Amino acid sequence: NFLYAFEVKNGKSLIFELQNIDKNSKITFLNKTYKPIKHPKKEGYYLVIIPIDYKTEAKEYSLEYTYQNKKVTQAVHVKKENYPKEQLSVEPSKVKPPKKYLDRIHKEYEEAKKIYATSTDKLYFNSPFIVGIKTQVTSEFGSARVYNDVLKSYHGGVDFRAKEGTKIVAINRGKVVIASERYYAGGSVVIDHGFGIYSAYFHLSKIKVKKGDLIKQNQVIALSGKSGRVTGPHLHLGIKISGISVDPLDFINQINALLALN
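Structure (tokenized):
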């Protein structure tokens, strides 16, 4: 199935199709195992979706692929993406939170981490993803984040300009796994799309869905706002795959190219 080396940049997704495999096939990359996903549009084909962590060093790795008791090894060249740096000024309490909030922050972090690490053996979507907001991107994925002169993190999603009260829609079908107010992310909705793929919508002013709800693509799930750690009102859209944040727009472009077959 493999004839060439894969090339991918840190923070992006490696997405490809396979055929002639069985349901016991598995792909291993950087000590994680990924299950091929039955292609919703092409009979006999499977999709493989591998997230490349932002912190992955630029070098050659190998991907191992097991099927019908055979092992195939494939080279993956990870290249370094040239991500920008951003200076942001926010409320001091959101850079160094007061002690009384530390338990809450830890609890929210652990809860989300557990959810993102869960892979449902059900694919909720069968059509291309949409970016339901047509406004300007104000902060790209992967920007180094310097809050009040302190380098805190990199940006794990993409920010869109959204004045307060803008309708926010689901980028594809799925099931709501988080619908709550959180310390850093503010009003948050997270949707499970199946097989470890999640979309996250942060800094919302009003949440219109609840945990457990099955959501249609383009359904209004919330109104945008400026809750949590923000410099002003906007929508933060994130994609996590098997617990790893990837560039949402890159993921959508790549998966859509494979799903857009009639």
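The radius of gyration is 19 Å. Residues 11 and 246 are 5 Å apart (CA to CA).
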